[in-house]
Amino acid sequence: MKLITAVIQPHALERVTDSLREHGVRGLTITEVVGSGSQGGHTEVYRGAEYRIDTIPKIKLETLIDDVDELRVIDWIVAAARSGNIGDGKVWSTDVGTVVRVRTGEVGVAAL
Hints:
Blueprint: E1 2-8, H1 13-22, E2 28-35, E3 42-46, E4 49-53, E5 56-65, H2 70-81, E6 89-95
Antiparallel strand pairs: 1-5, 1-6, 2-5, 3-4
Helix pairs in contact: 1-2
């Protein structure tokens, strides 16, 4: 099993979740996060004073999937989140050892 993690622009969330649901991906965890990367921060002016904001708001999306779906799910996320501009985000996968559905006790792929 794989944990697919994507950090994307907030405005891309609806497109990404719609794409995943259309392809049958269930069980998403969505978190509002802030961070910095190649996009860097930006400068804003508040009441005449200029200040630098080093972190940018992003959305972190996570889903557990079967190994055979790894590349397809990543492709769907990338296609839906890509604007072609710096700061579109990152997607990565991580190996998952064991998954248990708490309600039923199902283990492995059955727990997804």
